[in-house]
Fold this protein.
Amino acid sequence: MKNKYFLLIGLVLLFGVLPNCKSDKKNVTEEVGFVEEVNLEEALDNVIYVLPSPNEILAEIFIADMNIKPELANSHKNATKYVDTRSQSINLGVYIADFAYLSYSEENTTELDYLKVIKQLSEKVNMYGLVGNSMMDRIRNNLTEKDSLNVISQELYYEISNNLESSNRHNIFTLISSGAIIESMYLSVSTVDNFEDYKEVIKKMYEQKFVFDNFYEYAMVFADDPYVEQILDQLEILKQTFDKLEKTDIEKEVVKNEDQTLRFGSGSEFVVNSDNFKEFKTNIVSIRNEIVAF
Amino acid sequence: MKKNKLLKISLLLILPFFIQNNSASAQACYEFHKTAGCDLGSGSGFREYGQSKSGILQVNKMFEYKLVLYGEKDYKIGICTESGRGPVHYRILEARSKNVLFDNSTDEYIESVGFTNVFSQTIIIEITVLEEEDIEIEDGDELLVCVGINILWRKTPKIGF
């Protein structure tokens, strides 16, 4: 009788469970992720946070005639020097932002090298298949098509976001996003040479406070996580840096246009001056130098 | 004793199919907002906003979707559900003040809305898939709905010559 039970259990395992154990790692993590995802949503108090990708942040800040400086990017040669999960994850975010930044450059720079380190670091933090041969080919074929590289950069970030979310690795995503946001801000502030000519660009940089605040709130959900704990100091300084910026809040104003579309006139306008930009830049450069150190 | 063993075996038989069914739903929901049923029409210079997203939500339970809208941009936001479940009640609120900017219940639960956003701000989209409380539950999946949030944007065109 006992043997019959074992046989039944064996059959159940064979036909019911094993088909889920495919070699494709991405599918496995997605499947495991779903069961736990609903519980995590409870923990997040039913709030879903979404962040723009580095290329979207840079696109919002930069104007057409920005002087892109490829030398600002963290050298791809440093990638092998990051040996622990924390620095590998953070610098994966840094390199994704660098890749997005370089795609704004007119020159054929080193995008392929950056894509290679993105692939290496993503595999080191157990994300496989993120940068496949087809993506490498797309990059090679589009090295002169900067718009296409920008789209690829966006795809990469959201692929990482979906991959880590579905496998409930929010802690790693927090580290990667920290690196991506800090590097995007670093590249932005460092690209500006002349304060007077770039006041509108600087205002756009300050407006990234909304993105950062949203991210900070998300990161705080995982503040007790041992990995996330290691980036909290830098995030806290960045939060203080953004919070110091003076702004005027504009109260609710909704107007219905003739074509039935709406106009939301509420929001905030930041005060830009050379003193607050100097302090903002100094803090961002300092935080960035800390995260890329090895 | 024998009954208990039979019950355990029955559970073991059923469980894997539930797991497989649920995971299939999760995968089918991935990028649901990019399917034809969620199409908002990308003409007039509109393109997809990266913060578009799909997810599995529980019916009659409100979820908040928090995102940043940049200034001087036109947006179209559309909420769609798998197999036309719903209607979906959604409200757009300022995250800072919780002021309501739009509530689709005042507009016959319209699925999409277009607007111009003048200043960058964080907004919250409150989403509730409305269904009758006494919905017949055949399995756990009935309470879960794949919802797509499709967002398109463009730079607000300058008016004048």
